[in-house]
Amino acid sequence: MAKFVLAGKADCPYYAKAELLADSLQRNLPDFHIHKICLLPADWKDWLEETCSSRGWKHESCPIVWRELIDRGGKGMLLGGFSDFLEFVQGYYGITSDMRTELMLKIAEENLQATELRLEEETHQRNSLKVFHIWISSALNSTCYSLIPLLFTTGVFRDVPAISLHLLDMDRDEESLLGLKMEVEDLSLPQLHQVTVHSDPTQAFQSADVIIFLDEWPSNPAEQEEQEDKEHTMRRVAERFEAYGRLIEANAQKDVKVIVSGDTYVNLKCSLLIENAPSVNPSRFVASATQLEYEARAQLAEKLSVKTSHITDVIIWGNISGTSHIDLQRAKVLRYMGAIWGPAGFSQQVLEMVYDNKWLANDFLSLVGSRRNSISLKTNRTAAISATNGILAVLNAWNNGSSPEEVFSLGVVSTGHFGVPAGLVFSLPVRFHNGDWSVCSDITISEELRTRLEDAIHELTVEKDVAGGMKKNCPVD
Which residues touch 320 (CB under 8 Å, ≥6 apart)? Predict the structure, then answer.
């Protein structure tokens, strides 16, 4: 399919002539597609300069016509002005235009009136419509591709009439982001108000109601880091998330909901955001441990020959992407075909049904720890679907509530819970109610669990100290 873009001033007669010719081609040629950009005369010069500068073109007149080549891996091919477009059409399609000057001027006048009316209506709609703003960082991450459609189709934001989706990626070029934007627009989602893309963080998180962080270093977490690479990674994490925190402080809504997901330094990232956004309540920031929780549930389900959804109340403590502990003291299994069978909803303790303590102490932990890496090795990509599922589970409970008995594992800022130092972002068991979370208090801390918590506390404290030292030695401008 031939995809062309025609842009010009609303009062330009040559834009009118090119528009009429393009419309005729689109009506008569099934493989010809035109996208028109009609601007007010006062906005034309700045728009043209910015467009040409970003694409490396030189063009000064109205209109401008180019051919889109994104689907072929290119940035677009400049054709030029009206005469260049007419010459191309004559040579390629054998079609010309014989529009009279009077008709050109009449259409140009109508274009100007229509554009002014359209912009007036858009301004009125923007002012009268309460738009909900969702920002996703590292938007070209594979998790984002599976996440975006489900944000709009699973009822997570069921009470929100209009959503503006803002896609930020500082590590990739804007052309790739524009390609993603086009894909999202093609979904024709009723709630979607607009999509914007950003490779420059200057205006990041403007009016944000929800922010989802997917940033990951190294780009392939399945690769083992060397010590010097680990230090380099931590430096990048510290610099990036300190800057993100300051942008949240400056630009986001004060009741913003922030979710940090990923495979490396998840707790640390969340902690850095909190420290650098002091006017936002720390309870608005969470680090997702749900993916790890579901991986543990999947292994238990396989062992007990039940569905993953039949395993509940697995708790993840500590450093989500480091020293964590999988706690099964409250874990239950539904519909287990054992000696005792009950009605729908009847559950039994997982620890009583798994009789193999050696498996629990060794194989189980090893299988859970290597599950994500195994997926990456088999598929040659990150475990994006399970990461998406974890994010959606948290968002749905946060927005819409959940069963009073349902327990989630989240990295949240401690206020001294279970002896975890105040201010440390630590994975804890929480419940959601009326748009807020609270830490579960009815948990037994055994001596073994206490030891595991102390190990995680030590590791997270060291990470914070190292990141703090990097900040002092290498201040960010």
Answer: 266, 267, 287, 288, 289, 292, 411, 427
